[in-house]
Amino acid sequence: MDLQLYLRVIWRFKLLVAFGLLLAVGLSFLAIVRVSLDPVGFSYRQPEQWTSEGTVLVSQRGFPWGRSITELFTFSVDEATGREFSEPRFGSPDRFSDLAALYAELAVSDPVREIMLRDGPIEGSFAAEAVESSQGDGLPLVSVFASASSPAAASRTAERGVQAFLDFLAREQARNQIAPEDRVVVSVVERPQEAVLVAPRKLTRPIVIFLTVLIAVIGLAFVLENLRPRVRPVASEAAERMRRSA
Fold first, then answer.
1. 16 vs 151: CA distance, rounded Å
2. CA-CA distances (angstroms) from residue 65 to 28, 62, 70, 110, 236?
3. 36 pairs with which residues across the strands?
4. How many angstroms separate the Cα of 101 from the Cα of each of 58, 115, 161, 206?
5. How far is residue 34's CA from residue 46's CA, in Å, rounded to a whole number?
6. Residue 150 has what DSSP assignment?
7. Cβ atoms within 10 Å of 149's Cβ, excluding its own
8. Contact (CB, 8 A) for 155 and 192
9. pLDDT, tens digit, for every residue of 12-48?
10. Is the dihedral angle over the CA atoms 116, 119, 121, 124 positive or is it negative?
């Protein structure tokens, strides 16, 4: 590779190469952003994706998860017969794990989305899933997360989704006249955290455009260089004639 030759050709066609460089930068820029004239402004062609996540606990009053013995019983009297009977004070842990799987589906149901829409359009998407242990067993936890094109929008949507589900659950419990001591309690154990970037904008297209245009312009410079007539110096021609005559 004759680097000096390349640099010489590029310098000889420096105006063409400079124009090609500006063209490559401009086209690469337009591959990233979209220009609008009315109103004048710029917007990215490909949005980023940010995700914010929080966790809620499915339990009941009395926080049974803090007790070493959960099979405690309460005793009541049947008003019709006057007989005493006992019933478990705390539900089975497996029941709350099953409810977590159910609540993960209810959290993204149409009634919950309708509650979210009362505060305005939903920015991005909202989802939920039941949490499993490292052994694959279900836990009484529901992970809620939202994805949007900005960190602020993702955090807002996650917060709104959690609150909408809590409002939906409280409304249904009240509508069905479930006694407070018999209600499932869903509490937020981890509020939606600061959003993290999960899908940045890809720069593959602008890089390819930049390199393609720049290579094409430099190639054009070499084509023009080869098309230029080569004028041989007079002294060289005279020396060549003398050599042949000798």
1. 43
2. 57, 9, 8, 31, 100
3. 41
4. 10, 21, 17, 44
5. 10
6. S
7. 15
8. yes
9. 888 988 999 999 998 888 888 888 777 777 777 778 8
10. negative
Q: Is the residue at 240 inside a domain?
A: no
Range(s) of the domain holding residue 16: 3-45+201-229
Which residues on neighbouring strands pair with residue 132, listed in sequence order?
138
Number of separate domains in the chain: 2
Domain shared by 187 and 80, yes or no: yes
Token pair in block for residue 38: 């009315």
Integer CA distances (angstroms), 183 to 62, 115, 170, 177, 187, in order: 11, 21, 9, 10, 12
C-alpha 222: how far from chain center: 45
Say whether pTM exceeds 0.85.
Answer: no
What residue type is assigned to position 120 of the chain? G
Q: Are 189 and 141 in contact (CB under 8 A)?
A: yes
Q: What is the DSSP letter of 77?
A: E
* 15 and 135 housed in the same domain: no
